[in-house]
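worker-3 :: picked Dihydrofolate reductase
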Amino acid sequence: MGKVVMNASVSVDGFIAAENDDPGPIFEWLVSGEVPLDDGGVLKVSQASFDYVRPYWDEVGVTIAGRHAFDITDGWDGTPPSGIDHVVVVSHRGAPEGWDPQAPFHFVDGIEAAVAKARELAGDRTVEFAAGDVGGQALAAGWVDEVRMDVAPVVLGSGKRYFGSVDAQHLLEGPDVVVQGNRVLHLRYRVRR
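worker-3 :: tokens ->
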């Protein structure tokens, strides 16, 4: 099995979005460069960001996200973000009415079921938890091997926390990677065991 990573873009003060779910300028770095990050041509980053992010995206087999993230993105229109093969959605509800059953999205009830399904689907590739409440639950349960943060130069003041509602101390190593891109600082920490 591959590693388990918690990942997201985040403000300097630790928020992934405002209370109303608006990320504001947190994702500005994804359109602040000249190098296409994906085939769509919308995402263009600095060469440094491309060299850090693209290989990571290529190693991720499954992203685990909460139902709230799924709903506010309209399920990414049935196409997993970042070219990832599958998305496991943690939800007490099944797929939305009219959802394409062939779309590579899997709806499971609870974080443990999400981890089991993601490990099955990912094989030896990386399992990624979206930051926020679901990612925080995975960190608290001891499943996360690595924390990746794309830190944007903005202070939101309040909002949705990167680590969700984690209320206990967790020690990280490093950072073992620090990469400066346009409008972003990429950080990677291993979780201390």
